[in-house]
Amino acid sequence: MVINSHYQFIFVHIPKSAGTSVMKSLSQLRGNNKRWLANTKHETLVDFDAQFESRKNLYDRVRGMNPRNYYRFGFVRNPWDRMSSFYRYLTEKQPRHEIMTISSFKDFLIKTEEGCDWIQTLHTMRPQIDYFTNTDGNLNIDFLGHFEFLQEDLELVGERIGCRIKLPHLNSSTNSKRDYRSEFDNEMIEIVARRFREDIAHFGYAFDNIQPSVRCSKALRRPRAL
């Protein structure tokens, strides 16, 4: 998550949806407020709204600063493409030693559905929609962009917050030309469909189509704090 009190925005970081590249770009802007952040970069909006009051200092209280009214945006990605990218990251970077017990991408997905403990703790295995909803389950965000239209959607965000957002050079895992569809069989397709059924339903994704059938890249209505 990135919170900026100068441009008054909150960027919600979804793992494996180009979030690291966007965060690197946004971190160069003036006004980033790190004291409002949690220890994890993958905090949901529900968690942030619940914890913000305890993170404010005297200066924030005197100034009446209320980031709950800041412009909120984030990006989502095709769930099958995202899982393929995530598995490749796990095997290449090996941030968890447990990945050595996994024999293949299919084995990883099967163990995911079986409820393998260490896999369930990974932020990336959480549905993307969970990061953007409020306690009632409604979207609580102003702009929801797509990984598949990243540069185009970032330009729209930049126009709204009043600054130009320049992406750093994207690495191969973020800007790959590979076709994830060749990595799945029917069983694997269905496992991902069940795991991320809410993302698929809300964001217009399908296995056979890399791009979403519905563009969410527009202003969204959400309740404002008083």
UniProtKB/TrEMBL annotation:
Q: Carries keyword Transmembrane?
A: yes
This protein's name: Sulfotransferase
Checking Pfam families in the record gives: Sulfotransfer_2
What does the entry give for GO biological process? carbohydrate biosynthetic process
| Gene Ontology molecular function terms on file | sulfotransferase activity
- In terms of superkingdom, the source organism counts as Bacteria
One GO cellular component assignment for this chain's record is: membrane
Q: Which InterPro entries match?
A: Carb_sulfotrans_8-10 (IPR018011), P-loop_NTPase (IPR027417), Sulfotransferase (IPR005331)
Indicate the principal place this protein occupies in or around the cell: Golgi
